[in-house]
Amino acid sequence: MKKNFNKLIESSIIKGLAFCAFDTLGPQPIYMFPPPLEMEELEIKKTEDKADNILTISLRDYIQIAIKNISLLIGDGAVYNKEIEILRKYQYFGIIPFPDLQLTSLTYFHFIDIESTEIPTASAFCILIDEKRRSFLYNNINRLKNIVIDFFSEFDKKMITEFPPQEQVESDFNGLLKKIITIEETPSTPISSQRKMKILIAGLDNSGKTSFLLSVDRKFSKLIGLSPTRGADVSSIEALGATIFLWDLGGQKKYHEKYLNKAQIYLFEADLLFYFIDIRDRDRFEESLEYLNKMKKALSDLEQNTPIIYVLSKGDSDIIESKEIKSNIKSITNKLTKLSQDGPPEIYITSLFEIFSILRAFSSGVAKLSPNRNLVEHNLEEFSTTTGAFLILLLSSDGLVLAESFRPKALKITEMEKSEDLLNVFEVVAPQFTMLFKIFANFKATEKDEATFKVSDSVILFKKIRVLNYDMYVLFLLDEENKKDLINQNLQEFLKRTQDLLIRYIS
Ligand SMILES: Nc1nc2c(ncn2[C@@H]2O[C@H](COP(=O)(O)OP(=O)(O)OP(=O)(O)O)[C@@H](O)[C@H]2O)c(=O)[nH]1
Ligand SMILES: [Mg+2]
After folding, report:
1. Is any ligand 1 atom within 6 A of the Cβ of residue 209?
2. Domain coordinates of the chain in residue numbers?
3. Which of 201, 206, 224, 288 to mutate to test the pocket of ligand 1 (most atoms within 8 A of CB)?
4. Comparing C-alpha atoms, which of 461, 411, 467, 457 is closest to residue 439?
5. Whose CA is nearest to atom 5 of ligand 1?
6. Distance 214 CA to ligand 1 centre (A)
7. How big, in percent rounded to 5, are the helix, strand and coil portions of the chain?
């Protein structure tokens, strides 16, 4: 049996599988494929000139893997204050680095029900891969997720009374590995060393696409005298550790057919679509929705489930509160909501004159591509429960929003309710964020590590933090300044736990 698994793994890009759980002894590896080596064996293996792919790690290494993973799920323990039903629904994936072992793992976190324990047991299942080949995980993440979730929906049942011994479950994990190997045989993208992402920027002509991209890249000098984009203009930027290819699809009608007929080129393997609608141009809403529908159909014909972010452009601050624009926003939001099948659409209002409205829309898009975003936000949420912060934003030094956590009360204390007639308030409303970002810009300029700002009844606390070689910033919105102490007490622990998730945010 043991041989079987090792044979399989030799032919795979995957180096090992580990299932860990929070056992009576704390975080423990329960199933380890290949099994850990004794110290002597390890020494021998090290001297051998081995060409095989099999992982040679000790039990101690597996325990380290278990500890690091499980602590990401249960954090400081605040998670156990949640109702059991909520714990049962937790399902997170994360890409976690293990630099000491030169490994990266795609980890599936969830709680399992075991009869002998009252509360569900925290578990982490790791697919281990050579860190240099981790792009395989990013590029095939959706297929991998499905396989793993399917597997555990059955396998969890086997663990109800206790963890069966490894020999008894070996064939299950063999089966799982075989499925992963089928992905390797038909990868979505050639396996390469660096993660590349393709983002489409589409919408009618004159809807502000090129202006948006130039602002993201802070090329303001080029904004003057911009002419319509002819055909597709592909550029690339480096952000958050990855190369992002931006396909600016010039919106004039004469190009539409070309993009749609040659979808295999233009739309193929798009990770994300930003769809632009000029919020002032109500007369063209219908035309824009028609184009959107064609584009959505072309994407689904390619069997791509490309996420879409809607950008309502030209929402300048001098007109955003006007009756006309408010009614336009409402009308288009309703229409987009009707069109969107899986959940409420993600909509941002932007203005060229509010750079942060653009950065926020862009970063939410890019963050959508990060497998680690949900887990970081899960941890942020716990941190906010522990510290009583109403809003926490994690920002990169160039103002991209890496993660955010907020409680409805945050809307109240910043008077963000103004637009309550809109759906999905927080995603839609940018202007209030602009205020926060302006403060952020001021804070950055001071080059301090910490500062507080009073805004009406609330306090905004900024902290500069360092994760590896990157400066990052955390913003907290508080109702009382004395909550600061609690934040300072818990921040280091929080950072220690989540820094690996941030390092592997998208690269
Ligand atoms: N007031 C205002 N004008 C904007 C804003 N964004 C873009 N514009 C203007 O809208 C016009 C069209 O912008 P572009 O970025 O060229 O539009 P596009 O979507 O790239 O157009 P095509 O390339 O033809 O598809 C330009 O004159 C911009 O200055 C904004 O936020 N506010
Ligand atoms: Mg353009």
Report:
1. yes
2. 2-185, 196-368, 373-503
3. 206
4. 461
5. 314
6. 11
7. 45, 25, 30
What CATH code would you report for 373-503? Answer: 3.30.450.190
CA of 433 relative to ligand 2 center, distance in Å: 26
d(CA 80, CA 297): 44
Residue-wise pLDDT for 325-370, tens only, equals 999 999 999 999 999 887 889 999 999 988 888 888 898 888 888 8
Which atom of ligand 1 is nearest the CA belonging to 204? 25
d(CA 29, CA 66): 6
Distance CA 271, CA 79 (A): 32
pLDDT tier, 105 (very low <50, low <70, confident <90, very high otherwise): very high
Report the C-alpha gap between 334 and 337 in whole angstroms: 5
Own/partner pairs for 245-248, CB < 8 Å, 24+ apart? 245/196, 245/197, 245/198, 245/199, 246/199, 246/201, 246/213, 247/198, 247/199, 247/200, 247/201, 248/201, 248/209, 248/210, 248/213
Ligand 1 site, residue 215, Cβ cutoff 6 A: no
Q: Are strands 346-349 and 308-313 parallel, antiparallel or unpaired?
A: parallel
Q: Give the class (CATH, top level) of 196-368.
A: alpha beta
Q: How far apart are CA 206 and CA 144, in angstroms?
A: 40
Q: Is the CB of 373 under 6 A from ligand 1?
A: no
Q: Structure tokens of 470?
A: 């990157």
Please state, as a whole number, how many other Cβ atoms lie within 10 Å of the Cβ of residue 257.
Answer: 10
